[in-house]
Design brief:
- This protein is an alpha/beta fold.
- Helix content is 38%, strand content 23%.
- The protein has a single domain (19-157), classed as HUPs (Rossmann fold, 3-Layer(aba) Sandwich), CATH 3.40.50.
- It has four helices and seven strands; from the N terminus they run βββαβαβαβαβ.
- Helix 3 runs parallel beside helix 4.
- The model has no long low-confidence stretch (mean pLDDT 82).
Length: 159
């Protein structure tokens, strides 16, 4: 197959798949995020794809009713601002210099799916941690994204 063709063979299946044009990488800003960023960076470089780095701030106010809501909104805005600053620093450190950054606030699962649809992403890259015991029964973010996404999902096994 010539370089620049629209499809490439998968070694283990011999099926051809289209190249990715827009990759959404989910970064929770933990230590494992560097590993996820590296996988997304490599995929984007291979395909010449646009890369969007997403971090979701899931802030739940302690008391959701009444006048105490105002300080909660300030705290949430501050968390979003600080997360954006941290994401910008880490993006450069991890070699995602051409990535566009987004910080959203809300339900992590819902925001990931919303942004993926809004951005028309054709690949979502996220981290996946090994689960044991009762944790296997809980619906984790990667499970929701895998089953709810309109596009391919790459789950990077975190060490």
């Amino acid at each position: 197959m010539r370089t620049g063709d629209a499809v490439r063979p998968l070694g283990y299946t011999r099926i051809h798949m289209a190249r990715y044009k827009k990759i959404l990488v989910l970064l929770d800003l933990s230590d494992g995020s560097e590993q996820v960023a590296a996988a997304a960076r490599a995929m984007a470089a291979d395909d010449g794809a646009e890369l969007i780095a997403l971090h979701v701030v899931e802030f739940v106010p302690v008391e959701p009713m009444g006048e105490t809501m105002m300080p909660s909104l300030d705290i949430e805005r501050d968390l979003v601002k600080r997360s954006g600053e941290r994401l910008a620093i880490l993006k450069d450190r991890w070699g995602l210099t051409n990535a566009r950054c987004r910080v959203e606030s809300g339900s992590t699962k819902a925001e990931i799916l919303r942004v993926a649809g809004e951005e028309a992403a054709d690949l979502i890259v996220l981290g996946s941690r090994e689960r044991h015991g009762l944790a296997i029964l809980v619906n984790f973010t990667e499970d929701t994204v895998l089953h709810g996404a309109h596009c391919d999902v790459l789950a990077v096994r975190l060490k």
